Amino acid sequence: MYVSDSDNHRVQVFDADGKFEREFGSLGSDRGQFTIPFDVGVDGRGNVYVTDDGLLRLTKFDPRGRPLWVADGSTDARLEGHLHTPRIDADGDVTVVNDDKGLIVSLTSDGLVESAFAAPGFGAAVDPIGRTHVLSCGGGVQGYGADHELVAQTAATDITALELGPGGVAVALDQAGNVLRLKVAIPYGRSRFPSATQAGR
Predict the structure, then answer these.
(1) In this structure, what DSSP letter does residue 8 have?
(2) 90 and 106, same structural domain?
(3) Which residue, of 79, 94, 118, is where some domain finishes?
(4) Are residues 1 and 64 in the same domain?
(5) What is the CATH number of the domain that holds 134?
(6) 115, containing H or E segment
(7) CB neighbours of 51 closer than 8 A, spacing ≥ 6?
(8) 76, 80, 194, 200: which could join 113 in a potential S-S bond, CB 3.0 to 4.6 Å?
(9) Which domain does 40 fall in, by range?
(10) Which of 55, 87, 85 is nearest to 71 (CA)?
(11) Over the stretch 100-118, which tens digit does the pLDDT of each residue have?
(12) Cβ(175)–Cβ(123) under 8 Å?
């Protein structure tokens, strides 16, 4: 488990039983340092991606916590602003939300922007076939197809975080701190899909 410890300018790493293993990062603006580490994502190889709400950047770390690259507004204007929810697919591509610009930005595993599309929100999750589910600032979840066209949306919800798993199962966190288990109805053979439905708490 990876926890962004914003007040102490570090990321903490715990094992599956909650035992502390290690930490990385410190206060500062150099590579590998943080002012306000915020959202964290981890890929299948153990690389860690951390957004910094103070430095307005995304940093990729290797499994030992050594910085590999930094991406921000100085590397691509589409990354200028507050970045959130780094999500990494099987190919190592990274998707982040720039909530200042209302963009969903995709980067290669090397930190280069390869695409961006307009979708106002503060968080996102990407399903196995490339559809993006965006947590809207106005409430609800909007679904965008692999071609970045809006294909579905829910009514207003109080979901503040969303993670997608296999078989259409999703886990979400609401504003009251409840963990929700959802079933996302995604017919994989269609370009359009209906909205998510709550399956349990």
Answers:
(1) G
(2) yes
(3) 118
(4) yes
(5) 2.40.10
(6) strand 113-118
(7) 37, 38, 39, 40, 57, 58, 82, 83, 84, 85, 86, 96
(8) 76
(9) 1-118
(10) 55
(11) 999 999 999 999 999 999 9
(12) no
How does residue 187 score in pLDDT terms, banded at 50, 70 and 90? low
Separation between Cα atoms, residue 185 and residue 193, nearest integer Å: 7
CA distance 187 to 131: 12
**Residue 197 confidence (pLDDT) above 60:** no
What's the half-sphere exposure (Cβ side, CA atoms, 13 Å) at 120?
5
- What token pair was written down for 32? 């590998």
CA 4 to chain centre: 13
Q: How confident is the model at residue 55 (pLDDT cuts 50, 70, 90)?
A: very high
Residues 172 and 165: their CA atoms lie apart, in Å, by: 11
Which residue, among 87, 111, 110, has the nearest Cα to 97 in the 3D structure? 87
**Could you say which DSSP state residue 57 is in?**
E
Q: Which residues contact 77 (CB under 8 A, 6 or more apart)?
A: none
Per the CB < 8 A criterion, the answer to whether 82 and 89 are in contact is: no
Residue 155 has pLDDT above 50, yes or no: yes
Q: d(Cα 36, Cα 106) in Å, to the nearest integer? A: 22
Identify the DSSP state of 36. Answer: S
Predicted confidence band at 189 (pLDDT cuts at 50, 70, 90)? very low
The token pair at 126 is 């990407």
